[in-house]
Specification:
The complex is a heterodimer of chains A (222) and B (295). Chain A has 8 helices and no strands. Chain A has 222 residues and is mainly alpha-helical. Chain A has one domain. The longest helix of chain A has 40 residues. With 295 residues, chain B is of the alpha/beta class. Chain B folds into 2 domains: 215 residues, 3-Layer(aba) Sandwich (Rossmann fold), CATH 3.40.50.300; 71 residues. A 6-stranded mixed sheet of chain B has the order 6-7-8-3-9-10, sandwiched between helices. In chain B, strands 2-1-4-5 form a 4-stranded antiparallel sheet, covered by helices on one side. In chain B, a hairpin with a 2-residue loop joins strand 1 and strand 2. The chains are: A mainly alpha (222), B alpha/beta (295). At the A-B interface, helix 1, helix 4 and helix 8 of A face helix 2 and helix 3 of B.
């Protein structure tokens, strides 16, 4: 049954998945070309100076891509469910309602994660081509909050759509925006190193809100 | 007697607005049962409670003996649910949606679905969102029939359908229910279509349940009488004899379970001078309007 549920989710998001993946790949290509141009036209000292002392992030074009990808996937997956209260169909399937909702959310989250992993690997490959491993590690620590912000965006979009009361939607959206803003506030390498585990836990907890929104949907709160 | 649905003292409010209080009725297994009422009398509310998508303020609602708000997956598999407006996964085409649903229901009958689909002038890869309302209704019907449920809950199946599709929908349902002894619970705002289809019904109005009855009893025992009077100040009241009435200038229509003789005797006792007294030919829709009024 869950295989069939996965099939439905895939039918909803396949185009959004392809488009968002393509956007990410294009941005990574741009980063790669930029780096090649920088290396071509600057000497090693200048580049070192910019990165180490001035905190230049050669991968900054990627910053909002995880959020954009999450928005595209989140809306593609959950908007069709809430239009005409179509979620009733999913919750009427012979499965436990919480299992259905959590499966849908987990499936979307794993699709999102798959893109993030590919983006992170490609970014790492670009970095190791030009820089020593210390900078690559610092870069990866720096982009983790961006990816976490993307995951939080996906959860906030999902929960906001499943929730039916506008006041609660607004509250969830404001709360979510505040958290995402914190994750996106870093402006230097490795700034969030020691708090990342806390943010990971908090981000994953956001996903659990869909159970509460689903519970309220089922109670008929409109 | 075994019941597919049992509703006991159901009470629901939206905020302070009462939908109904102490609604009670039972649907025996194998019957075709209608919930009839005008818009806003609580039909969809009842369907939502039945399907576990609304928690009532009070009372209980059971499907096959289980609390409808906490249906087990096994019981959900026994219930086919048509959402108002024939809502389905419109991002799928007819092949994808059949593939999807068939995995959930062990008794899935593909042939019923494809037989209905063969009547539609659509290709297998046409998305449901690109179909007409009538075609979508056939897809939704095909899916719930293929599910082979023991109980079908149909919320306003007639919404958006022209006469042909409404007839086709009911013909298939009738055939299905009679041959397989299934229970159907249906709501509609087009009462005339249900004449000859329903066996029993509950009639709702804005104050709650007007009556629970078999269709045969209603059609055979509920009468409409029309007469004229020269008395411009005729006063009638709803009571044991007169269930409803309309006064249009000097023409009066009364609705009653009493015979023509009993109503005439009643009018005589009230001192109402009348002439041209005759009984109306009534179908189910006339009876429904007679009971609930035109407004």
């Amino acid at each position: 049954m869950f295989k069939a549920l996965a099939y439905k989710e895939w039918l909803k998001v396949r185009w959004a998945y392809a488009i968002s993946f393509l956007i990410g790949l294009i941005v990574l290509l741009v980063i790669n070309l930029n780096m090649r141009a920088i290396v071509e036209f600057n000497n090693a000292n200048t580049i070192w100076n910019y990165i180490v002392f001035k905190g230049y992030m050669f991968f900054s074009q990627l910053e909002y891509i995880p959020i954009l990808v999450a928005l595209i996937l989140g809306f593609a997956q959950f908007l069709p469910e809430v239009q005409n209260l179509r979620l009733k169909l999913s919750l009427h399937l012979p499965l436990k309602e919480n299992s259905t909702l959590l499966f849908m959310l987990t499936y979307g989250f794993l699709l999102l994660l798959s893109q993030y992993i590919v983006f992170a690997i490609l970014l790492t490959l670009i970095s190791v081509k030009f820089f020593p491993s210390e900078i690559t590690v610092a870069m990866l620590i720096t982009v983790v909050p961006w990816f976490l912000a993307g995951m939080a965006t996906y959860f906030v979009v999902s929960v906001t759509l499943v929730e039916q009361l506008w006041l609660r939607r607004i509250i969830i959206a404001i709360f979510g925006f505040g958290f995402i803003d914190i994750l996106m506030s870093g402006d230097s390498y490795g700034q969030y190193l020691y708090v990342i585990p806390h943010y990971v836990i908090f981000t994953l907890l956001l996903g659990y809100l869909i159970i509460l929104a689903g519970f309220r949907f089922k109670r008929g709160v409109r | 007697m075994e019941y597919a649905v049992e509703i006991n003292n159901l009470t629901h409010y939206y905020g302070k607005k009462k939908v109904y209080e102490n609604l009670s009725f039972k649907i025996p297994k194998g019957s075709i049962f209608g919930l009839l009422g005008k818009n806003g009398t609580g039909k969809t509310t009842t369907i939502n409670i039945l399907n576990g998508f609304l928690k009532p303020k009070a009372g209980e609602c059971k499907i096959f003996g289980e609390d409808s708000y906490k249906l087990s997956p096994q019981t959900k598999a026994r219930v086919g649910f048509l959402i108002e407006g024939h809502v389905q996964y419109s991002f799928m085409n007819i092949k994808q949606i059949e593939k999807f649903y068939s995995r959930f229901y062990p008794k899935w009958k593909s042939e019923i679905y494809w037989e209905l689909m063969s009547k539609l002038k659509v290709t297998e890869d046409q998305k449901i969102s690109k179909m007409s309302c009538g075609q979508r209704s056939q897809v939704a019907l095909g899916l719930i029939l293929a599910q082979d449920p023991d109980l079908l809950i149909l919320d306003d199946y007639s919404m958006g359908l022209d006469a042909g599709y409404r007839r086709l929908f009911l013909d298939y349902l009738k055939e299905y229910a009679h041959s397989l002894n299934k229970t159907i619970f249906i709501t509609s705002h087009i009462i005339q279509d249900l004449d000859g289809f329903l066996q029993d019904c509950v009639i709702l109005d804005y104050s709650g349940v007007v009556m629970e009855t078999s269709i045969d009893y209603l059609k055979n025992n509920f009468h409409g009488y029309v007469f004229k009077t020269e008395d411009e100040n005729v006063e009638l009241r709803k009571d044991e004899v007169i269930k409803n009435y309309e006064i249009l200038k000097n023409k009066i229509t009364v609705y009653s379970f009493a015979s023509a003789e009993e109503v005439q005797k009643y009018l005589d006792e009230k001192g109402i001078k009348y002439f041209d007294f005759e009984e109306l030919q009534m179908d189910l829709e006339d009876a429904f309007i007679g009971l609930t009024g035109k407004y």
